[in-house]
Every structure is written in structure tokens, then in C-alpha cells.
Amino acid sequence: MKNIILFSLIVLVALGACDDDPKNTNNANNVNNVNNVNNANNVNNVNNSNNVNNANNQTACQTMCAGLMACETITDKETVFGTTVDSCLTKCEGTLEPYIKTCLLAASDCAGYEECMRCLTYDDSDYCDGACDLLVNDCGGEDLGQCGIDCSMYTSGAAGCFRGAGRQCWEAAVETGVCADFAGCPTIH
To answer: What pTM value is reported for the model?
Structure first.
């Protein structure tokens, strides 16, 4: 009799383990748990990637600011960046115009920093033909002649210092011929 009861209990346990009921949620829960772990790992990977990008940007800004602040002949250095590497770093990581930042981060010496920061003159407006051609003929702007006049005026300082970084931004946009590439450049028309 004991053997029959013991055998019956074993059969019942075995049958319970082989449940074919489609409402069984254990497998679904296991899949969800795996997905939750994968999602958490993906979020961590994105966060780690952002941390690496922020660290790279900070390192680039620190390198640039240390070099820039050591140069003595840069136009408006104190006005634009402050007087210390720390104030420069704050500007680089925050309020610096993107086209100026791009130019400065690409420079590697005082001459490069100076070219990015110098105020242009009318003699520097030869890039205007290509820039206006891109802006008006390819990207939906208006009045090629007026664009040329405006560009020359902006470049020569009619609206304040038009820096070498602005010219480099427009030259790069003309080289690619992509309208979106001038979106971050300073106004010329």
C-alpha cells in the first residue's frame, strides 16, 4: 500500500512537471527576464558609450585649451575664452560656437588657432563665390548677387568679427556640396 501511494505521488509530480497548458507563463517569464537583462545591458552600453564620448570631448578640449592659452597672439583670446585653461574648458564644453570649436579642435599649433580666431577682411572674401553658389543655386537661397554682396560685407566685419573658423566652415560645405553642411556655419546672406 505504501508503494502504491508513493508511486501515485511520483506520477502526480511528474504529470505536473509536464504541463502542456498553454497558459504556462514560466517560459514567458524566463524570456522576459532575459530580455530585461539584455535591455539593461544595452542601456549600460549606451551610457558607457556616452561617457567615453564625453571623456574624449573633454580631453580634446583640455588639450586645445592648454595649447590655445599658451599662444600669445590670438585675437580676442581673453574675451572669448577667459584668462585660464579652466575658463576656456568651460567655454569649449558649453557655449563656444560649434564651427569655432570644430576649427580649434582640428588645429594643432598657435598658427592654426590664430587662423581660426582671426578677424577676416574684405581680402578674405574669395570664398563667397562658392559659398553663395551653394547657398543660392543648390540649397534654395535667393539672389546670388545680393548673397555675394552680403557675404563680402559680413566677411569684412560689417556685423562684427567674422572669424577664420567661419570661412573654413563655408569652405568645407562648398567642398562637400551638401546643403546641411553649412547649417552650423555663420550667416553670410
So the answer is: 0.68
